[in-house]
Structure of Pheophytinase, chloroplastic:
Amino acid sequence: MAHRNLRPLLAALLLSPLLRFAFCPSGSWLKKPGRSWAPTALAAADADIPQTNPQGVENRFWQWRGQRIRYQCMGEKNDGPSVLLVHGLFVNADHWRQNMPALAKAGFRVFSIDLLGYGYSSKPDPYGEEGRKINGENGRRLGSPIATLGTAWGGERPDVPVPLEHPLGSVYNFYTWSEEIRDFTKEIIQSGPNGVALVANSIGSISGLQAALDEQELFSGLMILNPNFRELHVAEQPPFITPIVSAVQGWLRSNGQPLFDFLAKPDTVKQILKEPYHDPDTVTDELVDVLLSPLLTEGSATVVFDTLSYSAGPLPEQLLADPGLEKFPVWVCLGEKDPWTPPDRVRALDQYPPVQRVDLLPGIGHCPHDESPQIVNPLLVKFMKSLIQK
């Protein structure tokens, strides 16, 4: 267990600095916008932000609670159902650049979004007044519910307390991201009575599950690509590891910038990405650029190190066991060569009522949608069609 808990920690410590430097050097989106609750195209002042992703999809911005949120869409005029793509840790909407065209071609309205703090979205101070006002934990009665969690070998750990409240009170938590996803669904997608499908990779799956639990009537189903079991969560750590992890987290919050600067170089990022990506040939210069460029923007390092200190919040099994999701359709896919996600623990998710199927994909790593879109895109289309037929 210790090895499986330390490895993701070390990988996260390496990955975080790289991604911050890739997203946006100017920080101009941090200025308070003149309009509220409306989608906008890029302004001339945002010259440092690409006008489009590598496939030519326009970058747009939505004003949410005084923050600017970057998003993309394809197939707006399609008459099929809508789908919202939710990225994982330290990445952004561009991580779906190879999936959006296939979904749009299949007749669906497709949206991808940068969660608050990531990509080209705003990055308010995690603990400042601005962040406190929009913190998704506000008004929630959070505690430490008892849950049955999984093990790496597919077993169970019953009666585990799961602290839900962010230990430092940061705005960057799953409840804030849930509110962002739900508001975006209502304000921008405006899907109508059939709901919006969610597709999420890695830690984004927890944001998606929480959003569905909070306001299920907005959504038609969720497809999870490589769930993340959050090895940095206190409920996942052996007791002897917790003080070490806490000490590293505290050091990084105070002293991490030089490490971040040292690692945030294209060649270094490319080498780091070859751990979660099983096929090294898929770690292209384009991938490095779309992930690293936004991480170079002002405030990104703070968000990265703050997120690495988030050792609380909901966990996959706890959410899937909630009676509120009992009839909510969930599909799970796993790239079997993912070095961070135990396959047996993923297989065991099929015992939860929402989970309709679990597919294991051989020869693929932690980001199957980007590493092997030729395999994953047909599965995404199949998932969308299953929601129409239900």
